[in-house]
Amino acid sequence: MPPALLSRFDLIFALTDKPSAERDANITAHILKTHRRGQIQKYEDPAILDGVDIESIMNDTRSVEPVLDREFFRKYVAYAKRINPVLSDDAMKLISDFYLKIRKQGEGEGASVPITARQLEAFVRLSEASARARLSTIATVEDAERAVRIVEYYLRKIAGEGDRLDFDIIATGTSHSQREQITILKDLISSLLKSGDGIDPRRGVGSDMLFKAAADRGISEDRAKTLLRRLSQNGEIYSPATGFYKLTSEG
After folding, report:
1. Exposed, middle or buried: residue 165 (CB in 10 Å: 0-12, 13-18, 19+)?
2. Are 94 and 146 in contact (CB under 8 A)?
3. Which residue ranges make up each domain of the chain?
4. 242: phi then psi, degrees, rounded to nearest 5
5. How many other C-beta atoms can be found within 10 angstroms of the C-beta atom of residue 140?
6. 9-48 tens-digit pLDDT
7. Looking at the whole model, is its pTM more than 0.70?
8. CB neighbours (10 Å) of residue 205?
9. Greater pLDDT, 14 or 214
10. What fold is seen in the domain 86-172?
11. How far is Cα of residue 20 from the mean position of the Cα atoms in its chain?
12. Do residues 171 and 120 lie in contact, with contact meaning Cβ atoms separated by under 8 Å?
């Protein structure tokens, strides 16, 4: 999904599918059992199904029965949507203090943008949603705290850089530290090529020389390879020969 589109969501939760024998077996059993339950419920008289333990199946899948009646829940949602909560003074202060605290991390030359005004609006919307779920006309400090916890959790998962937040990861797809390393690699390719230190300008800078220079600047070989692949995919560098690199802008 393009970063420009991602940045417009109030919340983003990345779900990873990691194979696990025990978990996969439980999920498989649950899906198959609930499907079978649904098929059984289509019969007016399930007793005609020979060889099927109806009672056992219904008991095993009792957890899928809705906690709330469908009609009741529909009325609850319809009523809740008519409520327009107002932020309390304490809720406003909590949101403001948290937002300004996070923004302060972005002060200083070369610092990344930790959070934007779009997330401030998300705090407000989520606080109001929390109050609306309680059928309350006032969004209290508890509602604001809930909104802050949820947004901070998602930002830490998606845009966390150590103990800091870097919203550039969402806004551009590249973190501030990645951009710095990419700039270093491009500068190294350019400077090494211009140095003429045993380099054939037609072939470009060799990977061994580039990796050594990158390591001196704190970029590991594995990291350099990853960034070089990215630069190549973006058309910023090319390889005149295997294991050699040149900047597209410099021909």
Report:
1. buried
2. no
3. 86-172, 176-250
4. -60, 125
5. 19
6. 888 887 888 899 999 998 998 888 888 888 887 887 777 7
7. no
8. 25
9. 214
10. Helicase, Ruva Protein; domain 3 (1.10.8)
11. 22
12. no
Residue whose structure tokens are 């990796």: 211
Class of domain 176-250: mainly alpha
Beta bridge partners, 29, equal none
Mean pLDDT over residues 108-116, rounded? 64
Length of the chain: 251
What percent of the chain is predicted at pLDDT more than 90? 32
Q: How far is CA 70 from CA 65, 77, 80, in A?
A: 11, 11, 15
